[in-house]
Amino acid sequence: MMAGGTLFVSRAVLIHSWIKTRLEQLGFNDVTVTGAEKDALNMEINKVNPRLLLIAAGFYELGTPHMAGELYKRFPQLNIAAVAVHDYPVSSAVWFKWYGIQSYVSFWEGDKQFYQGLQMIRQGKQYISPMVQNLIDNSGEWPDTNNKMTKRHRECLLMLCSGYVPERIGEKLHISRKTVHNHLDSLYKVFHVKSREEMVALAWQMGLVAPEDVRFYDRKNDYSQLPDWAAAKMRMNKIKAEEKL
Fold first, then answer.
1. Distance between CA 239 and CA 102 in Å, rounded?
2. Quick one: which of 9, 114, 88 has its CA closest to 19?
3. Is residue 122 a contact partner of residue 27, using CB atoms and an 8 Å limit?
4. Please, are residues 158 and 214 in contact by the beta-carbon 8 Å criterion?
5. Which among 83, 106, 137 is the end of a domain?
6. Among candidate residues 113, 137, 161, the one where a domain is terminated
7. Residues 41, 68 contacting (CB under 8 angstroms)
8. DSSP strand pairing (31-34 vs 103-106)
9. In terms of domains, do 84 and 22 share one?
10. Total-model pTM
């Protein structure tokens, strides 16, 4: 049985003391902030014996929902909430709910909504940010999260949705073609599909991938010269951006 207090998991080591002070100002009791992960984090939880665990959504990057779900299975009595203070992809945030995490609060939905969510979590209530709840409400059948989906699997899925073929994914992630296909096979089991085309279509249909989440990994343009229409569009976008400044 968890005793009490709050454990906040964050990689922002330089501001741990600030996080502790701010949470205490918001009414959270016996706050401990840690950057420990995996086995070290399990040991920290056993040591602190908290009632509430707040984990930064980007702590394990795209793998945070899965890792938070593993914590939930290991510590079923622990109230776990994910907190996004940076720009965390909304469609990735949905996975917190699917892995059993009952609360998700995002700073990017505004101060009022953010602090309201934190206060509900502090009171032991469940809270899901409106944008994430909207995606959940409009999704179809939930994925089978009993089949583990790692951070690497999420990277493969997002790259597939960005138009990358398996060979290109291997090049960009520095893994073999065989390893890429192993990851894809695991994803097929999660989504109950037989091909990457079906998987991408289902990911879009279910809202698991939002347009803003699709980001090409290359920083440079793969084309030596853009088509005329594309070059004109880029010039127009640049002019509009300058007019807003």
1. 44
2. 9
3. yes
4. yes
5. 137
6. 137
7. no
8. unpaired
9. yes
10. 0.66
Q: Using one digit for the tens of pLDDT, what is the confidence trace for 5-56? A: 999 999 998 999 999 999 999 999 999 999 999 899 999 999 999 999 999 9
Q: What is the 3-state secondary structure (H, E, C) of the chain?
A: CCCCCEEEECCCHHHHHHHHHHHHHCCCCCEEEECCCHHHHHHHHHHHCCCEEEEECCCCHHHHHHHHHHHHHHCCCCEEEEEECCCCCHHHHHHHHHCCCCEEEEHHHCHHHHHHHHHHHHCCCCCECHHHHHHHHCCCCCCCCCCCCCHHHHHHHHHHHCCCCHHHHHHHHCCCHHHHHHHHHHHHHHHCCCCHHHHHHHHHHCCCCCHHHCCCCCCCCCCCCCCHHHHHHHHHHHHHHHHHC
Total count of domains within the chain: 2
Helices 166-173 and 151-161: angle between axes, nearest 10 degrees: 130
Cα separation, 65 vs 78, in Å, equals 16
Residues 19 and 125 in one domain: yes
Which residue carries 């079923």 as its tokens?
A: 76
pLDDT value of residue 144: 67
Structure tokens at 27: 């009414």
Q: Smallest Cα–Cα separation from 27: which of 105, 124, 103, 129? A: 124
pLDDT at residue number 178: 92
- Cα angle 90-92-93, degrees, rounded to a multiple of 5: 60
Structural domain harbouring 23: 6-137
More confident residue, 243 or 43: 43
